[in-house]
């Protein structure tokens, strides 16, 4: 998940203000007695879950490469009695557990890691490096918390099986590949998630994601929460040659450099200031030698938006600037830049009523001040909601779960920092205390939405 600085800042403000308004009187499916049973089950399983988390953390896998992680998910769910299907959207996993009549609830955990070199110094830190399809070697680490997501889901699955006599309905647990490139959810749907694999239609859909807020803090907030996003590659073509004779070439590196600078004017000078719009260039790839002008240069850009019209303006601006620069440097019409649209997602919108409902048992679990229900929209993005596919009307809520050591978080606040670190940062840490807490949050959330077992 791509948590930008704005979501980091706004979540910090929400934490600092502590708050959410007090919940209106509302009953919950999770009684105090059932809450106590959840805590007991998770506590008894905590050592196993922490060990599992460390193992997944030490063996991170990039999008569509999650074979080891997917095998862990499939093995654990099968052992618990779930009906498991694998290989959906290449590496996706789905487990279904039917436990009598009642609601059907879908829960998703994403499995992929980042191309980031870990610098935490933890004993179980990742040292993994892999080769991409393009031949480049990159470091890989779970610097966004997807290792915790998988662990929470599997811990919740075990607790739900142990508490089968307390609830009634159907669980669908889904391990999703390739969230980071914003490709995995759509890949699973396109591979027949709801048709060929014949999953039951859910009545509710929930997911959870880490954030560097303090352990014990959860956001359950309705309305627009995350921006739409697009991943765009722009390939500038040129004429390569010797670095000592640039007049004999048409330099794509210069074209790319000029484009990156000019792209910034799209947001600052063509988008209405009140609109959300972000255009970030994350990579420029060109050449290998100091004295050789290459024939091509690749620019990798990322967009964030809420209004589809803004998206259209951003894309049109990129194409216009890129073509104009190429023409300026002498490229013919049949050699203008190639623009490739890769992964993308629409804005994520939480269901207001579902977010309010889920906040009730979470307040009982964590305390009123630790459940935030008023987080404003931010520019982070997700593709989780695309898993709904043809079931667009299914109520959906995406929880944000704090994973930073509370003492470390408090120290950062005293130093004037909104957070001790951000997602996708080499120093991103999921505090081990967050493993049982996140498992409790997931379990209580599922029990809230499923039917009570008849006595």
Automatic annotation (TrEMBL):
Residues 234-325 form the Peptidase M20 dimerisation domain. The Mn(2+) ion enhances activity. Residues 1-25 form the signal peptide. Keywords: Hydrolase, Manganese, Metal-binding, Signal. The keyword Transport does not apply. It comes from the Bacteria. Mn(2+) binds at residues 144, 146, 180, 209, 424. The keyword Manganese applies. One of its GO terms (molecular function) is metal ion binding. Its cofactor is Mn(2+). It holds the Pfam family M20_dimer. PANTHER family: METALLOPEPTIDASE, PUTATIVE (AFU_ORTHOLOGUE AFUA_6G09600)-RELATED, PEPTIDASE M20 FAMILY MEMBER. This is Amidohydrolase.
